[in-house]
Amino acid sequence: MSNIVLIGPMGSGKSTVGAALARRLGRPHVDSDHFFVARYGSIPEYFRAHGEKDFREREHRIIAELLDSPRPSVISLGGGAVLDERTRALLKDQTVVMLDITPDQAALRIGDGTSRPVLGDEPMEAWTRIYAERETIYRACADMVLSADDESIETRADTIVARL
Ligand code: S3P
């Protein structure tokens, strides 16, 4: 049985929906960003000290470890994880769900963007540009795309279960 992997733009609810989905399925939930923080400390600080390239390398290694877990899990990935082609290759054997949101919803959810170093000083401008760069990649990786701006976390998790 494959893992269920949640991908999508920053603010799309990958962590919260992932946790709700895991509860429904009785599977463990893991989050690549949480794992990164537990191992290496704060992501903004890591970016400042080591840069994005190094972050992506470590992010890929963490994801490879998480996907290799003996127990099928629900795994939420950081929004930029799909940029790594080795990660994309690993996702081919998993059930991949893209959570999609509009810029209006993203604006409500990402706030001032300080916890996300790729967003810089103009978070919504950056979010929109990054979304445009990544949308095709997300869709190409996904077995299921869930576009549900106004649904609650619980409803989104129910919808995924119904479509598995
Ligand atoms: C990033 C998204 C973040 C985190 C890091 C980089 C990105 O995760 O991995 O700040 O490049 O999109 P979320 O998608 O959970 O915010």
TrEMBL record:
The keyword Metal-binding applies. Substrate binds at D33, R56, G79, R134. CDD domains: SK. ATP binds at G11, S12, G13, K14, S15, T16, R116. Its cofactor is Mg(2+). Mg(2+) binds at S15. Catalyzes the specific phosphorylation of the 3-hydroxyl group of shikimic acid using ATP as a cosubstrate. Belongs to the shikimate kinase family. This is Shikimate kinase.
